Fold these 2 entries.
Entry 1:
Amino acid sequence: MPRYFTDEHEWIDVSGETATIGITDYAQGQLGDIVFVEVPAAGAQLAKGKEAAVVESVKAASDVFAPVSGIVTEGNSALEDDPALVNTAPESDGWFFKLTIADEGELEGLMDEAKYKDFVASL
Amino acid sequence: MRYLPLTEADRSAMLDVVGANSVDDLFAHVSREHYLTAPIEGLPPHANEMAVERHMSALAAKNLSAGEAPFFLGAGAYRHHIPASVDHLIQRGEFLTSYTPYQPEIAQGTLQVLFEFQTQVARLFGCAVANASMYDGSTACWEAIAMAGRLTRRDCVLLSNGLHPHYVSVAKTMGRFNGDTVVYAEPTLTPETDFAALADAVDGDTGCVVVQYPDILGRIGDMTALAEACHAAGALLVAVVTEPVALGALKSPGEMGADIVVGEGQALGVGLQFGGPYLGLFAIRDAKHVRQMPGRLCGETVDAEGKRGFVLTLSTREQHIRREKATSNICTNSGLCALAFSIHLTLLGEKGLRALAAENHRLACLAADRLAKVPSVEVLNEAFFNEFTIVVPGDARQLVRDVADKGVLAGVSLGRLYPDGDRRENGLVVAVTETVTEEDIATLASALEEALA
Amino acid sequence: MNAPNVSGWKPGTPEAPSGTSGITTVTGNRGLMLEEPLIFEIGTTETTGVDLPQPSADIARLGGLARSEPMGLPGLSEPETVRHYTRLSRQNYAIDCGIFPLGSCTMKHNPRLNEKVARLPGFADLHPLQPESTVQGALAVIDQLARWLLTLTGMHSVAMSPKAGAHGELCGILCIRAALEARGDARSVILVPESAHGTNPATAAFAGYAVENIPATAEGRVDLPALKARLGPDVAALMITNPNTCGLFEREMKAISDAVHAAGALVYCDGANFNAIVGRVRPGDLGVDAMHINLHKTFSTPHGGGGPGSGPVVVSEALAPFAPLPFVRKTDGGFELIEEEDGVEAAPQTFGRMAAFNGQMGMFTRALAYILSHGADGLRQVSGDAVLNANYVLRSLDGVLDAPFGGTGPCMHEALFSDEGFAEGIATLDLAKALIDEGFHPMTMYFPLVVHGAMLVEPTECESKATLDQFILALRSIAERAKAGDESLHQAPQLAPRRRLDETLAARKPVLAYEG
């Protein structure tokens, strides 16, 4: 299952037409302890680069953007009771939402793991 | 000047350290065209305490205060007896001169008080969560409407005709700017509230319905059925309480299904003060909406040694973090007034609040009965708490002025609050609290009899 | 993701230390540091500290809505009440205890004369809806204060009704919006410097505008070329603070205002920093169209642990017709209060009402007493000493703390520092918590956002040189420890009534009311 990354520190796993999206370990480290996550509802239409979710730490609220356009199939309900999952398992159980990809072409230009590692190193 | 500790020697030494010749040099970035080199002309120089006190006392003496006359004004601001301890405690420097508790380790006094206050308000209102205060009842009401708009994503607001007209005015002003449709009509002189009509009017476009309890004419309505109608239509019910002492006798709005309960806390601990500063109360019945609440919230936690402590929390809703996406722009609210309210309510306790409310109602009933005997005066209300409306022949506003000239503060005429029409110009709202004596009631009755003869 | 954790702050989970002296007590009290339970833990619903007549037989005129459910509101006797709140108060730092150097908050001494005159029954015991003939003295107070504010600012009119600074900001922006709509030129964008206080963009958004940031120059001021490039027919206003939140006077303020006006927009000035220029500069001379004044900042009304405040708004002649109701108007015989009905004729273009009743009268009496006490000469001295004190702190910390704009000349009433030079792993937060152990309330942290690890120090004019010297001494010591990487800073504060509190827990599992 290929995984891509954005320069806003989101990751996206692609499996056929479905994508799972979350934030990277680097991002959760920058945010500090996560206290609340607002995930989009099933059926929500997202546009690439636009706000999709909100993640809050004690002192900050940050937008999470949709890496690609699509329709949300599921928000991660586990985050409601346990937002700390984003800190402990950001790139697995701490996923934010899944969606049906509208346009596979939008995946072009996203970074692969190696490129993202370089990108983070340069920050 | 007694408030400025720096001496000339200090200034000299400090200017040396700073590397400037004079204080004026420190204003070098101000263009010479705009920099005033001498005190502004036409303004008096400094004055000592005695002179300032004399000046202010002379102005105070030009007013007829509530303690100097039989006093029956209410309409959203109430005169209750505030126990002497309250004012002493709020003047302790650690309360009076402290700041918003952003450094919780050295602000546990303020934070614990806020936690207690939030709990008291929530329990009084029959709600799950209350915030740490808003400016006053009218802005709390507007913020409730805004919150209901965020939750329902609808922009139609139905206001009861019993809502305080200043609160209506504020809601209309804000509605004008954010595109809400605000539906409202002035009250007519009937003894029933308009809750039934509102229940009929709620539909799928309604974001919220706003009622007042007791209302501006002193009427008391059961909002249970209205709450059900709102919920069936996907709308929220906002209840406004301008006299919190009433909840010592009456069912709470939360109990009857109101979703957001707001109010004016002035009646407890906070004096009349010619209109401010007052105390906005804001609570929600269901805790799940807490992240859409405006205002500060204080929460319980522990410190690094495991000791219980309190902190401001859920701050990401607020302006200093969320900036343009905040739930409100409110920053400074009404902390010291919240403290006064909390102290007064602690001194009363549940038992005292019930006794206070009963005494208010008893005296109000006495007054209503006595005024009903004044020729040509009609008491409108069948039910009321400590405030009711009487209907007089002729202009009630002029009547109030005439009676004031004789040293009696008879109440608030509806003409002061509304444009004429539907006989409102004949309406006079009379409030009776525990500060009113039976002698005062007799004096009021005589004054009205004389003026109406 | 945008802007992850700009402050660089993370809630810590320091190991519980043993305390400084290792002494434990049975009660948990430590000498004069007294633990105090909640009223819900010590009071009962049967206890009351007020003597009231016993309720007699049911009087049933309550429409069948009598309360039967218990409330759960505890009461305490008077001695217990006094003790409870006295003990709580002793856990608070306050201006009365020591310097409170919060940037842009202007924590100056709250004179007790103000408290005395505010409590005169002729002011305190007045109902807002009394007949006008019975409140002429109160209306006179409002009028006198208004005249002072207008003369000090050089503006045309003043709206006295806003309840606090943010409320005043909303008032000013709504005046601007009403004025633009009246001339058929509704615009959609408000420009805000990136260093602005959070209430500015929040207010603009609330008033229905899209908010865009204007960058700062390397000297910490508004970038005038960038501003000019952005101005256009869609811009309604610029919100600016002067002196700005970096503590610097906007030298090009008049040019900024001229550019904004030339583009058909208006200038809103956040008056939070008026203490720096009161009596020396009039915002009206700089082209400001509307400015709120925080009476609880420049004019000494007490902060009270979070309010109440008061935010009157001075406006230009162009905006005056749109100002909200109610307002006081002078007549031949005295004063009148213009409310909704009279407003139809007297203020046909008013944008409406911002709050019930007549404004924060209790703060007006206090502020007027303060102004009369200082007079024109005293107020000029206030800004002079405030600016001198801030510059003294700034220069005394040369080489100790990095001052990003220290090289651009004098600061105004507040000095801005950054965490440049701190060892890895030591943050502004740690320095602030260590200041608590030294007996000081920390300065404003992490604001303005344009400086990394910002520390904004505003001493005000009410601090003596001796106090400043002691504060500087403490800062110097802690800054050295920060630069040396002293890990014990993570344990601070160790001597306050509480150690660092778990804010993560409070946000993840909010407990907002007593549930026991």
Note: The radius of gyration of chain C is 26 Å.
Entry 2:
Amino acid sequence: MISSHLPILLVVVPLIAAPVMVILRSGAAAWVLAIAVSWAALAISGALFVQVAGGGHVSYFLGSWPAPWGIEYRVDVVNAYLALLVGVVAAVVSVYSPRSVLAEIEPGRRYLFYTMYALCLSGLLGIAVTGDAFNLFVFLEISSLSSYVLIALGRDRRALMAAYQYLILGTIGATFYVIGVGMLYLATGTLNLADMAARLAGVSEPRAVLAALAFITVGVSLKLALFPLHLWLPNAYAYAPSAVTAFLAATATKVSVYVLLRYYYSVFGGSTVFHALPMGEILLVFSLAAMFIASTIAIFQENVKRMFAYSSVAQIGYITLGVALASMTGLTAGLVHVFNHALTKGALFLLLGGIALRAGAMRFGSIGGIGRVMPLTCFGIVLGGLSLIGVPATVGFVSKWYLVQAALERGSPWIAFAVVASSLLALVYVWRFIEVAYFREPDARVSALREAPASMLVPAWALIAACIYFGIDTDLTLGGAAAAAWELIRGPQ
Amino acid sequence: MTFASHYGYWVTIFLAIAGLYIVVARGNLVKKLVGLSIFQTSVYLLYIAPGKLIGGTAPIVADGFQVYSNPLPHVLILTAIVVGIATLALGLALVVRIKEAYGSIEEDEILAAERGD
Amino acid sequence: MTPETAILGAIAVPLLGAALIGAAHRVPDLREAVTLVTAVALFLLVATLAPGVLAGARPAAHVAEVMPGIDLAFRVEPLGMLFALVSSGLWIVNSLYSIGYMRGNREAHQTRYYVCFAAALASTMGIAFAGNLFTLFLFYEALTLVTYPLVTHHGTDEARRAGRLYIGVLVGTSIVFLLVAIIWTWAITGTIEFEPGGILAGSASNATVGLLLALYVFGIGKAAVMPVHRWLPAAMVAPTPVSALLHAVAVVKAGAFAVVKVVVYVFGVEAISGLASVDWLPFIAGFTVIAASIVALRSDDLKRRLAYSTVSQLSYVVLAAALLTPLSVIGAALHIATHALGKITLFFCAGAIYTAAHKSRVSELDGIGRHMPWTMAAFTVGALSLIGVPPAAGFVSKWFIISGALQAGHYPAVAVFIASTLLNAAYFLPIVHAAFFRRGPEDAHAAHGEAPWPMVAATTATAAATIALFFVADLPLALARQLSFGPAG
């Protein structure tokens, strides 16, 4: 009975939790509810993934209004893969958050933090499962608005400006998306994604469709921080509370990648977008720019979190590179890196949160020698860094392998060399952290620090362990990505 | 179809570009939000204007009428207006907090205060 | 004890040892005992595989399928068997030596040192027994990462800079060249398993084969073919037992091993001999041999001289493999073993001289033979081995290499070998002469005698083994023969 309502439950459970948290007004109750909701989301998304992993899809009609008049939630292996990812990250971050929230957020605001967290979770899951274009916009804005609040709750006053900048750019992005949807609606007369795909074939005025594609691409690219539309990301990640950075870094941009892929393959059609139009080449240029320029900027950052934030921009470049290569291997590479990077960056930001908790500062100048006093945290960061570089037996390696393979299959070995050369840039900034953490003499302040608390280390190390485990047993991640890629390339059925 | 018969779209384009220009060109945080709102308003027009069909009546089924205006864009835009209000409210709340933290709501002054970081 | 268990045990035992060493941090004697016991256990484990391989068996072990078609799997073949025997055997000696050195010099962070050492040996076993390119690459990278704390052991600015060069060159070349070569091989052949006779036959054009060979050779930075050799002299900043590990036991040997393995099992000796696109390799390797020898000749710092000598000797192996004749491949395999023995002896001597006399420059060694007779006698043996003079083991491998060059009719290679033999003599024999036949300044060596006994014992053992190998070369020779001629040998 419940199993038939899984798609809507995925969204509704966190959504209801939010006002309940406001009513209860207690930070502790809110935290318990947040963990319950996150683990429920993991369970539901896991169940959905199992249901659709073999192919096929689950449809849910809101209010029993049939498509295309009503809003349809349509879950196939692509959405389920993303929803599972969001569920995993939410489950881990929710367990991690109480300790860091205790340190970083004032007592009076803690329940509000969890309220916004629940709303953000609901929004992200909604984006993942919905099959309606405008409904997607609604959830996009729910998740975005709650993200702005979450970021603004950071300790540093620069978090406010970062949130404001993100608000401006994010709203412009969402509005561009709405313009695109508007044009598609005017051309096809429907908002249901599957129906839109069917009707686009018969559209007599292709210019509107082309314009819609452009607007949607730009709008979603702002959300996914594709270079050069990434300007909001470094500050937002650097100054937000630790749990927020980890959560957003692992989910928000990844879900936006899904939106892009859903439109490119399931609505417009892969052959139109990548063969009739030069979208592959355009994405290729921006991806390569992201990989090299963002990695280079990362090397010169003074703030550790900001360095890893720029690293995220570069890693998103790898994901879009996989998309740009537009082959089965390339799309699999992009999708598997969505999962792998989420695991890696989630783990890294959780560990950095441990340093933020103990040391207070996140500047390289203030954490010299910290490897000696916080050995578990720093060793975890080293392992995460190795995954960013793409050392074998880590998840990062699997993504890199498939990217290089996709480039070679396309007959473009120079792209393969670009992928590995940019890994060397990652080597430089990861090694910078290693040298600061292990080779400098700790000053008096650093020597007095203790290791991060277990409630933070355990979830962070769970993700690090996942980075290593899924680097060796890739059935789930690679299998899911390949199934999703196949589902996308196959096109609407 | 002439230039004049598409005046709805021309107004939309003008509002959109004006809104974006204000966001980019003005350093005052509140003015940026004003520009953002204008930009979002243009989108409302983009949806609603085509919904009204020439010769169409209100969307209530009645005998003798064959052409009805489309109610769906109105519904969509109601949602979008709500989203826009929420965004604006959130943005203004942030501006209030920024004023408290920095003593100014001019972007260049705020950036100058953080320079060297 | 099935062969499969032995293979997996060869990786697991050093790792377990590393964990136990870390646990025994507070009891140094127990900690050192764990190292020695683990080293002996590893050697015995590896030795159990030898009879099977000699008889023609190729035991295998499969761990996991990492990506579709790409496994983490092991397969023991003659070259890997030889490499594993040499490395695990030398670990025992190196551990004994390390104990003497670390205590004699009162080094800090000894637990970290022994832990990383054990992990390095685990990685080395993984490289030796790798059944496909992915497994090789995984343990190759692991070896680089695990030896980084060893290279930067002293934690000084100089160590940090050397570490950067070490990681930068080795990880850089492996990611940019080697990984691309592996994935490219996978893309064009559909397999990355090691097969006798190679896997590229028929799948790649001649130009592609040449390009792939370049990517492999320069990607295997541990083989130190110029210009990717700079990490080697930079790594001399490490304590001497680490240098011994790097140069003799594991790191460079892993590089040389990987080059030979790729040439024999990925390209196939017969498959690529005669192709014009692979002609450049003997010349690059030959250039490295001569150029490195010249730099060695002009170095006064003893460890630097030994480092460049290693660069030169590694390219012996690359050059021998590149000649693509059965005899030269035998020579390449044997040279991995003989050079290991000779070089480790020389490094042990260098460390002994540093510990006992606090001297590190060749010009300071006049008359030291009188005060450190055992050490300098061992040095003489090592030098003779590297020059290639009987009754030292180096003569055996050099014999096969030069025979292979003659078999291939590659007279420039023959010239390179003859020239480098003369150069080796030029930079080793003067040291021997100065140590025994010159009289140093009166006060220079008065205060010291021999090095601590563990170091002398280890040095003497390797020197003796160098001579013994000359007389009893059956086992390495049998394994090397199987490499060229198959299980029939």
Note: Residues 157-189 of chain C form the longest helix (33 residues).
